[in-house]
User: Fold these one by one.
Assistant:
Number 1:
Amino acid sequence: MDFLENVRIALRALSANKLRSTLTMLGIIIGVGAVVGLLAIGNGAAASITADVQGIGSNLIQVIPGQMRGGMGGGAASSAVLTMDDVDLLQDNLKNTAGIAPVAQVGATVTYANTTDNQTVTATTPDYLAIRNREILRGRALSDADGERAARVAVIGTETARQIFDGLNPIGRTFKINGVQFEVVGLLVEQGGSGFGSADEVILIPLETGFTRLLGTSTVQSGQRTINSILVSAADPDRLDTVTGDIERLLRREHGLAAGEDNDFSVFTQQEILSTLGTITTTLQVFLGAIAGISLLVGGIGIMNIMLVSVTERTREIGLRKAVGARRNIILGQFLTETLVLSIFGGILGILFGVGIGAITTATGMLTAQVTWESIAMAFGFSALIGLFFGIYPAYRAANLRPIEALRYE
Amino acid sequence: MIDITEVRKIYKMGDQEVRALDGIDVHIGKGELAAIMGPSGSGKSTLLAILGCLDTPTSGSYKLDGLAVEKMSDNQLADVRNKKIGFVFQQFMLLARTSALENVMLPLTYAGINGRERRRRAEEALARVGLQDRMDHRPNELSGGQQQRVAIARALANSPAILLADEPTGALDSKTGADIMALFRRLHDEFEQTVIIVTHDPGIASQTNRTLRIADGKIVGDDWHPNGRSANGTEETVVAAPAAAH
Ligand SMILES: Nc1ncnc2c1ncn2[C@@H]1O[C@H](COP(=O)(O)OP(=O)(O)O)[C@@H](O)[C@H]1O
Ligand SMILES: [Mg+2]
């Protein structure tokens, strides 16, 4: 009785019961596939979010209205706003900065020829590009003159150019934002890195144009133009804390906040955003991991069920095999081989399934799924353990019975 | 060849004891064709399982070809079952979804016989029971009698010295049962195998040369009828054990 002979017996036993073998393997495939696929999605999401934030630039300080308590998940006071007065104040008083740009964003309907699309339009000042480390690939950037004239011009990202103009050179072409005609004057260098709100999916227009043509009256509160955020670029990374402190001091005074009162705005540096996102992405990964774990468990229970149902039949089979002269170790070897064959086949199919899930997710363009060896090893190991336990344990018990007991087992 | 002395098999059910075998002494010589009869629950199957090394007695000794079975290791017992004994069950006990040929090859596989030789011997065994043209059929494609023939072929595959059958005709109609019994007789006559058959059927027992009667775990009768005639006691002839026995 050599090893190959044992493999042959195992294969014969497996093919003699194709349904049971398939169902058992299905449990492994689903479990392994879910773990590999979901963890790949989780890793991909985490990597893409982190990359997006890192792309913002390390000197960046972002001021947004409302107080964020306990990280990004905290609620913002709805009445809090940032106004152009705040921007002017910072522009006049803030030192150690390389640029300050107010940002007003609005979701708008974009039309060109027969295509209509919903896009976020960002109204801002010329400083924006330098602050965000963005450069012009073709055409020109927005100028101060554009702002003064409230010119209907736009600088767009490569992804947006693809979506609206479908590969045509966008420079000089006109399209409509909420029915207002705009001319594309510049195209941004591609930043890459897919993700939620890709950096290449962007339409920039002059701030003044935004206020007069797009944003409407809802952005004006008590005669003040409100904005979504103020971007500040520190002149030097070492000055980040100083600048952040100055911003807080200036805005508190401007907003008339008494000592001990909470800020009605929030100031983030990229570092803080990264660490906050870190907790979010970890939560996401834990969440996906938990779902994957449950799938693995369900797959395992499936295997257990099938094995338990077949225990009676298999116990008699073991009794018969012993009755015709199979030694104990041969029986155990046979069942071990069966289980290994199922686990390995199922595991490989499950990995392919999981990689497939990842590939499909990547193909949707939402994010780039990242399959890790750890998830493969973990899923494979766990399913092999389940298979081993539920396949071998009954066999081990049966192999230790006297043949007559195994034959009579009910 | 088979020597059993003072064999007891006691099952403990809670604080109750079931004495399935209660002091059995029996000697069965090489080449005998014997029947074991007795009422249901009298211990026939228990005795046959012990003879076939499928079970071990609670006490007493069992010598097979002079070797003490109770002293054998698990692996030695497996080898004895593999090479010396062929066991036929009332319920056939064939592997489902597995062809007749592969069922018969099972004991050969465990004997370490591989490849063409294994196939040849399995085919030969199937031919002996008249199933040479049913080799690729699965059990569910065969009649009860044919299934029992496959089981007998399996028991014959390693040419064991002893063939044990526990009510081999019990699940068959009387015509098919008679055919199976004729097969046993033929195998015994042709190959001089020791054949022991547990049966309820006096007609079957009458075709053997010896009938052991068992009741409440004890031997209560041992009738010799070497001419294979009636076993109901009217015409039996008691003779000594064959000379070949020792
Ligand atoms: N595994 C067991 N546990 C408990 N009692 C058993 C077991 N096997 C057999 N018996 C008892 O032993 C006695 C003899 O059984 P058995 O040898 O099967 O009888 P027979 O084959 O003559 O009908 C019966 O009373 C039966 O209930
Ligand atoms: Mg019985």
Number 2:
Amino acid sequence: MITRALKTVGSKMLALAQSAGKAAMLVRSSVVWLARSPLEGRQTMLQMVRIGVESFMVTAMTSFFTGMVLALQTGASSKRLLNEPLFIGTVVAFSMVKELGPVMSALVVSGRAGAAIAAELGTMCVTEQIDALYTLGTDPVRYLVIPRVLAFLAVLPVLAIFSDYSGVLGGCLVAKLKLGIPTSVYWHDVFDYLENKQFFHGLIKTYAFALCISYISCYKGLTTTGGAEGVGKSTTSAVVMSMTAVLVVDYFVTAILVAIGIT
Amino acid sequence: MIRAAGVMKSFGARRVLRGLDIGVNEGETLVIIGGSGCGKSTFLKCVIGLLRPDGGSIEVDGVDVSKVQDEVQIAEYRRKFGYCFQEGALFDSMTIFENVSFGLRYLTDIPVSRHRGIARDKLALVGLKDIEDMKPAQLSGGMKKRVALARAIAAEPRCILYDEPTTGLDPIMSDIISELILDLKKKLKVTAIAVTHDMKSAYKIGDRIAMLHEGRMIEVADPQALKSTKNPYVRQFIEGHREGPIRMKLREYGEE
Ligand SMILES: Nc1ncnc2c1ncn2[C@@H]1O[C@H](COP(=O)(O)OP(=O)(O)O)[C@@H](O)[C@H]1O
Ligand SMILES: [Mg+2]
């Protein structure tokens, strides 16, 4: 009984270590191909547009409401503690810029673009289109992975900045209509305390997230086996893994940034 | 030009190729016949370096692909080949024109302005026209197959691997494709390996015919000699009988 359980756990761990190793190989070979062959400019542009367009509205919406709820919660708490809603703009702006903007946009992008990539590459894999790429003189890493990774690196920061803005705007709306804070006070709260450092704090995170999501989705797609069912499985697991990775990596990147004083 | 010796390939516990030996000479067309699932496609994929054999060697122009580790070098090695996939493997996000001209971008220095003309010529060769701007999903199975063939020959490779090029085509079209394969051989002196179940086409295009059974080549002969072979396995296969040694072997296989 116990040995069987141990065996199962053991083989699961081995499989995990193995796929981590293979994913690392994917990162390595993308560096090799990036150095040795010209960039697929058109593909990269196409992917940027796709990721951006697909995720823009959802990111803006979710962030707007996140900003609204942040303002409402902060307002209620600070009213209870201090008898009046203070520093609402500051709290909303700090939370959005340092944490929620990057994380919200990364989660949205995992669910939309990450899933789309895993499904597309997965389908190509089970229908031998990936093999066809090899036989026609290119390579899936060069033709598919690198453009997607670069597109994520280019687009996710932009989405995060939009997300910051719409969150702060959402907070402004609630501050004015529900908490009775004048707009000018709100914006003073925002800009009196916000520095470039916080902005970079958020921005650096988005690059880490972009790398995680793009590599996980591409890896899951390219290792798909087992027909249509396999495509479904790898899509789901790409989304779950990217979202988990975003939240886990978020902690560690934050810890590093705090340690080196970019807070 | 191609020398395969002792090629082994397993998928998990399933031993597909078990010491396969075969050679293909420059300018020759070798036809491989054999039952479904006996590893014909697997062998072709080993030749072009899509799969790595577990043992043995496959030498092409003196380079043993099973030993090449570097992915950029394998990519270089593959440039000699054209590969026509069994299921077509057309890129379904691209138009037919983009599919056919895809290899031209990576395998040749032909300027982009000439790609459309070349794609149209190659499509005409396989009996298709005015479909350049359609997507693969809009074509019938047989048309996809022919587009795949056009794509494989577009960059005029020195060696072409055909995986069941005539399966799923009507008899007339499959004769046209057989003629096309013969034509390519005569005009461009291409070396070719063709996997097929279509015996009529096999006799027509093959300089030699090899039968793959249980992971080995059990017979290699020219078409005339094959027709009068003594080997009971080959006889059963080419004549298409239900009863015979292969069926019994299949049953044994299930018990393995
Ligand atoms: N990627 C793979 N993973 C596991 N088994 C495979 C794979 N590719 C082929 N096989 C198995 O190898 C055998 C030979 O396949 P294949 O070469 O496609 O046969 P065919 O001669 O019909 O072309 C089949 O039994 C198939 O199940
Ligand atoms: Mg096959």
